[in-house]
Amino acid sequence: MSLQLPDGQLSVMAAFLGVLFPDGEEDLVTAMGKVPGQYADLMREPLSDGNAFAQAIAVANQGDDFTAFDGHFGGPENASANLQLATTGVRVVGLGLLVCAAIVLAHKAYTLYQYGLTAAALAPAAGTGGAMVPVIREAGRRHLDLTSKAAAAAVTG
Amino acid sequence: MAAELEVDHASLARQAEGLGEAHGRSQETVRAYLEEMASYGRPWGLNNEVGQAIDMCFSAVHEAFVACQRDNLDDYAAYPGAVREMAAVHRSSEDAATAQIRVSSEGDHEPTAS
Q1: What pLDDT is recorded for position A7?
Q2: Which of A26, A42, A155, B73 would bridge with B53, disulfide CB 3.0–4.6 Å?
Q3: How far apart are CA A101 and CA A93, in angstroms?
Q4: Taking the CB of residue A17, how many other CB atoms lie within 10 A of it?
Q5: Are A112 and A144 in contact (CB under 8 A)?
Q6: Cβ-based contacts under 8 A for chains A and B
């Protein structure tokens, strides 16, 4: 189950800071990240069967057109080779999503941590007449903003 | 010089069928994959900068992947037809040559008027 914002004081902190708790669901991102690998495994069979059929044509028949067909089908940039190459690329997409799931979780965890820190800082500030409250709010916002920017930069590279 | 010509019509028909079937299964696998990925929606969330960055990157990569699959599956779809076409061309050439030989052969054996 994905990390949720607990009910109570911490959810009040989201309203106090004006920073929404991230709505990502890292469990789903993780599940989604596993799909490309499964797809790549499934694609291997029809592509390999197709290659076998194409090779059989070149073996069982002789002629200029069959030689040309073999050269085209077996070429490094033909449809079958491109589809095969795409299965490797899609595996990388899956790995990227798994990394993103970790980033989503870390971002949510840090946001919760910052809510907690802000709540802890507000308790003694209330005793001083509330003069420090705007400063604490600004500090909390800035930390969350910086963290979000750093995490977003990690995603976009 | 042209290569030696040897055509196995029965196997050509089988290979064309097999290529068509491989293409059909590939297409179905791609369709199922895209459907499954779409069913997740955007689980990284969009109410924050991190989710938006992931969404931007994933969308760009996914679009490129979809275009690549579509183009290559379209190209692949032409192979079974090309093999059938080659088989048909060879078959008609053989038939024409056989008919020609038969005509010539019959001409050679026609009784000559004495």
Answers
A1: 75
A2: A155
A3: 12
A4: 20
A5: no
A6: 171
How many CA atoms, within 13 angstroms, populate the side-chain half-sphere of residue A105?
14
Is A144 within 8 Å of A17 (Cβ atoms)?
Answer: yes
- 8 A C-beta contact, residue A86 and residue B100: no
For residues A149 and B75, give the distance between their C-alpha atoms in angstroms, rounded to a whole number: 43
Which residues of A fall within a CB distance of 8 Å from B86? Answer: 65-66, 69
The CA distance from A21 to A4, in Å, is: 9
So where are chain B's domains? Answer: 16-102
Q: Which two tokens stand for residue A20?
A: 């929404």
Classified as helix, coil or strand, A62 is strand
Q: Closest to B40 (Cβ–Cβ): which among A28, A66, A103?
A: A28
A38-83 pLDDT tens trace: 999 999 999 999 999 999 998 889 888 888 999 989 888 899 999 9
Q: Is-contact A135 A142, C-beta < 8 A?
A: no
Task: Determine whether the interchain pair A93/B65 forms a contact, defined as Cβ–Cβ distance below 8 Å.
Answer: yes
Q: Return the residue matching tokens 């059938």.
A: B84
* pLDDT score recorded for residue B2: 53
Chunked mean pLDDT (size 10), chain B, 114 residues? 74 93 97 97 95 96 95 95 89 88 79 57
Complex ipTM value: 0.88
d(CA B13, CA B41): 43
CA A11 → CA A74, A154, B28, B102, distances in Å?
Answer: 60, 27, 46, 94
pLDDT at residue B90, as a whole number: 87
